[in-house]
Amino acid sequence: MKKLRRFTEADVTAESAFFMQRRQVLQALGISAATLSVPAMARADLLDWFKGHDRPPAPSGKPLDFTRPAEWQSQLAQTPEDKVTGYNNFYEFGLDKADPAANAGSLKTDPWMLKIDGEVAKPLTLDHDDLTKRFPLEERIYRMRCVEAWSMVVPWIGFPLHKLLALVEPTSNAKYVAFKTIYAPEQMPGQKDRFIGGGLKYPYVEGLRLDEAMHPLTMLTTGVYGKALPPQNGAPVRLTVPWKYGFKGIKSIVSITLTRERPPTTWNLSAPDEYGFYANVNPHVDHPRWSQATERFIGSGGVLDVKRQPTLLFNGYADQVASLYKGLDLRESF
Ligand SMILES: Nc1nc2c(c(=O)[nH]1)N[C@H]1C(S)=C(S)[C@@H](COP(=O)(O)O)O[C@H]1N2
Ligand SMILES: [Mo]
After folding, report:
1. What's the rounded Cα separation, in Å, for the pair 36 and 49?
2. HEC-encoded secondary structure of 223-240
3. What is the mean pLDDT of residues 138-163?
């Protein structure tokens, strides 16, 4: 997904390396201290990526009050908390998977204002406490699939977006919902420096069709693993759309705007031939630079048994969401 250099085979294995100690990585790669100074070209990228980060500890947020509706529970093996909160994409804090956990502590998430406006009868602003008090919170165990072909199973906590949208009363002109991440270059090194932020245009923006936004699976997420979201996962509020690639799940949202026209979205602006507006998980539509047929599931296993499994259409949620796309060519509208 990184724009500055090509996605290489080294990247594909880099993620398993992330969960090892540096010493084990070098051993696994057969690199001795003597050869370290001149790593083989094929390994240079991985070493660069690994950059001496060891796995960061999971920070803990405030415990939340929530229920566990049976409908959203699951027998799927969950990705452990330290991986969910230690292996992240949040380019505002750097491109490496360990960067968000290491750097996102600088983000001030309280006080917070989330504005809901645009084509609505009753615009609304929620403050930090409203986010966890205004709507009953539910735990929902969702599959999560990054466009980079890794996946997790995560116990998110939050509320369905449709409850918030009902409150603001969309007008008949509302066709899309646009989301925006906070713009705070003083707190987000990637917004200040093009190199750190991967050359993306900030603030990060995302969007959904109104019917996708109203779907019962679509949630505004305020917690994970029983506690308030840590900043690296998008505190204090982020979007979760489990049938779409992870980049649709915009973090640290400050505005939700209902619009007539389809809003611009960050990765689509950056590379329109690689990242579409829809971004529905689909094993049959490959990324131009890699296959989407399978994915590496990040579970509790050790580094050597990161499991490869088939990618599921709509990430396993086809029964619930396929009807949204009747008549749409999923290859053309990727
Ligand atoms: N603002 C913002 N939101 C973002 C991103 C980002 O870089 N900036 N990365 C996206 C991508 S590519 C993924 S896979 C998910 C990762 O969420 P997680 O780190 O909580 O697993 O966040 C998404 N939301
Ligand atoms: Mo992603």
Report:
1. 15
2. EECCEECCHHHCCCCEEE
3. 98
Over the chain, what is the mean pLDDT? 89
For the residues of 39-105, what is the DSSP string, one character each?
A: --HHHHHHHHHHTTPPPPPPP---B---B--GGG---SPPPPHHHHTTS---GGG-SSTTHHHHHGG
Classify residue 330: in a domain, yes or no.
no
Q: How far is the CA of 126 from the centre of ligand 1 (A)?
A: 22
Domain that holds residue 218: 9-325
Query: Does any domain span residue 218?
Result: yes
CB atoms within 10 A of CB 4: 9
Crossing angle between the packed helical segments 9-18 and 41-50, to the nearest 10 degrees: 40
Is any ligand 1 atom within 6 A of the Cβ of residue 275? no
CA 241 to chain centre: 9
Distance in Å, CA 234 to ligand 1 centroid? 8
Q: Is 169 helix (H, G, I), strand (E, B) or coil?
A: coil
In a domain, 333, yes or no: no
247 pocket-lining for ligand 1 (C-beta < 6 Å): yes
Q: Cα of 144 to ligand 2 centre, how many Å?
A: 9
Which CATH number do you get for residue 123? Answer: 3.90.420.10
What is residue 104's predicted lDDT score, i.e. its pLDDT? 97
Residues 6+ apart with CB under 8 A from 125: 113, 114, 115, 116
Annotation: binding site for Mo-molybdopterin: 88, 91-92, 146, 181, 233, 238, 249-251
Distance (Å, whole) CA 83 – CA 110: 25
Domain total for the chain?
1
Residues 115 and 178: their CA atoms lie apart, in Å, by 11
Q: Tell me the per-residue pLDDT of 158-169, one tens digit each, with 9 for 90 and over.
A: 999 999 999 999
Grade residue 301 by pLDDT with cuts at 50, 70 and 90: confident
